[in-house]
User: Fold this.
Amino acid sequence: MKQILSRHINTLKESPKTLILVYVITYFLWGLGMNRFGAEMEIARFTYWWQVITCYILYMVPVSILLKKYSFFEQYAYGLVAMGILEFLGYWLKTSYVYPENMLDKLFNPQNFSLGMALFFALYFPAGNWLVDKIHRLIFAKK
Assistant:
């Protein structure tokens, strides 16, 4: 277990600072946008705006970096576990607010809401890794 943890920490430490910066900026803006979208559409939102930092930057960025070497489907599968835990804790601890009778509740029913959210947000890992890679290459490509 110690070796696995040590390997993951080394992966994070060895990531280029420019890549981490692109992750942080991209995920922060993405998180703010999704939180705003969820509130405007009255689906769900964070209880506090700063949770974008804790969830998207402090949680999702490291997970994304650790998953980036895997295939799309492996990133999605591992991401589903990571997002399942995050979604469960967010609703259980009431740090995420779900609007009553929102459009997703009506479509899928309330019992499937958090599962649907986890299934959707697990796509962030392969999609985010693809997007960050494209942005990073565009800005920091060696000439």
